Amino acid sequence: MSERPADMAVAATARIARHEPRLRAFTSYDPVRLRQDAEAAPAGPLGGLSVGVKDIIDTGDYPTAHGSPIYAANHPRNDAACVALLKAAGALCVGKTVTTEFAFFRPGPTVNPHDVSRSPGGSSSGSAAAVAAGMIDIGLASQTAASLTRPASYCGIVGFKPSYGRYALAGVKGLAPSFDTLGTVTGDVATAARADAVLRGPVPASPRLDARPPGRIGLCRTPWWPEAEPSTWKAVEDAAARFRAAVPVDDVDLADYGAAADLHITIMSYEAAQALTWEYACRRDMLSPQVTQLIETGRAIPYETYRDALRQASLLRQRVQALFDRYDALIAPAAPGEAPLLEHGTGSPIFSRLWTLLRLPTITLPGLTGVNGLPVGVQLLSRFDGDDDLLDWAAWAEKLLPLRPAPALGEG
Amino acid sequence: MSERPADMAVAATARIARHEPRLRAFTSYDPVRLRQDAEAAPAGPLGGLSVGVKDIIDTGDYPTAHGSPIYAANHPRNDAACVALLKAAGALCVGKTVTTEFAFFRPGPTVNPHDVSRSPGGSSSGSAAAVAAGMIDIGLASQTAASLTRPASYCGIVGFKPSYGRYALAGVKGLAPSFDTLGTVTGDVATAARADAVLRGPVPASPRLDARPPGRIGLCRTPWWPEAEPSTWKAVEDAAARFRAAVPVDDVDLADYGAAADLHITIMSYEAAQALTWEYACRRDMLSPQVTQLIETGRAIPYETYRDALRQASLLRQRVQALFDRYDALIAPAAPGEAPLLEHGTGSPIFSRLWTLLRLPTITLPGLTGVNGLPVGVQLLSRFDGDDDLLDWAAWAEKLLPLRPAPALGEG
What we know:
Two copies of one chain form a homodimer.
Chain A: H1 5-23, E1 26-28, H2 31-40, E2 50-54, H3 81-88, E3 92-97, H4 125-132, E4 138-143, H5 149-155, E5 158-161, E6 181-186, H6 189-199, E7 217-219, H7 230-244, E8 249-251, H8 260-275, H9 277-282, H10 289-299, H11 303-320, H12 323-326, E9 329-333, H13 350-358, E10 362-369, E11 375-382, H14 387-400
Helix pairs in contact in A: 1-2, 6-14, 8-10, 8-11, 8-13
């Protein structure tokens, strides 16, 4: 925090030089620009913090490829609103981080800092790995299904997906506008809260974080609990037991929300097919089989089916409000288990589809581990627009979990 | 429709050459490219129709300046989803049309085809003027406050702002995401319906339009009726009388929705300040006083005030649903009166703020005139997501109104 700008740039460059050859978290960064940017950075509430920008987010200084060869040489004219906010608050943007293709499923080159044979999760792969390895303080990330929560869980870091709409999406490539949500991955809740006070913009808010317990927690194993691995079962039960020592924790049954996963898939597929119309019409040969399949799934959905799914999703959002009359916060699984091996892809989004559909704020907390000793996160959720309270509760909850395991990083 | 592509390009070029020097509806078009595009256009449901693209919408062939000198030389890599859909359906994109700066209030050079001393309305100024002058069949337009309805009213054409979210916004510069809605201006309802079947994408729907009356119409003068001019009072009462000869038309009192206008201003200002963060932070000297004022208004609004306005807007959207148990459609003023003189700007958005806030579909219908013989439109509205019915009812209503006045266009 007290580093001189030039020292900060040198330190960031050294960290990246050390870990990047093995982790491959960045699509582009430039030590010369980094130093210039550090010298030019204004004073502000994020002074001394470094940021990595997921490569579906426009930047005027670096190319923005959206994880696709179609945009390999794409140089936007301007920074996205979120990047401009962070820079104006004194943060140092050190480069662009790897995303899966259009924030969907085709992985980039990034590996998991805790085990380089495993996935960092997707789609915010590079931001999560870079934070876990200490290369950056704040990773800009986004979620349409599970693209922030899952990599945070796999990489053993904090992932904050705020309420839908809290951070402006201007300059962020969209996949499914009903769900697309910008958020952050960070090393701890305090850093997420500092970034939040700036990113909710347009004017930085006064930083505030009051670590305090929620009054009552609901333990929501979700209808997909049987699909989780023992690592996740154990992590969620362990977290619940730790919280229960301080506040009431009751089981919450959301069995009748099981349709949410299919609703989410219907809406996401349809909207992705709309959003990627040009790419499918004019650059189809440059799309992966995964994205092509997503688009073609969307194209096969009748318009009426899509609109009906939107209506049902809206009703679920209204219905879930009553749940938060009884519980301040929920805890739930963040991912099915530990990070999968690279050859198995970026993992299943099943434990986030419901919450993304409901547009609720969620913070993934690290500290617990699975059967192989790898990180397993748990989600803490709150009511829509309850982000300020959720950050406070997460700062409290974070302290009840074990110290997060540091990745055993070699010398690259 | 049966024109050969080359003939169509020649005819479009001739129409533009004739009227454009006086009307100044286009920011860019290229007769050579037009001919090439016509030869290459695929067969499809929009074959033979020409399109103008509002210049906040990305196009790979033409620059996209958003009505701002900041983006004067901005050349996107790709077409927006809406443009790709229209092209794939066989439509011929003839160029980019004038928008006010960032679709807000600073006018471009376009004049009203019915009286060149008057405004075409904004922000979809060029698309509306070009349709009114017969230079294009379909104008892509958008609305965040009244940017589609008002120019349609002033230019004496059909303006269709569908339900929020019906047309994908991928590749469209956003101003206030809670309201930004893509739509069309056209010469008649049938053309709007043909475009709709394509634009609601990703796959063109079967064209269908069944001109039929709604069961019951509500006449909604709105809480802002006293702010309208006699031209608008007369047009709305005249339209109501014509419809009443065929179906029941009852007065509807929405006096208790009066707060909607301020809610709309709060949300739009806050979100515009977020969306234009980079422009304000890094190119402030290139912003107009109007946009600067909008951003600074937004920056002065506390976050909690903004989120509270969002909650109130959501409640109004739920409440208005019951109105459509009693009325299939509403008719309402489209603008305060005839087009204002150029020096008075693009006119007041007051008669659209409520409907934009409520996210309802609306069609502005031409045919009536004001005290100076200039066009005055009326809005026909329906329930959220009732777009298909609304198009059918508008096709019926259109026939009950006088033939629209053709602009008395000289030879440029």
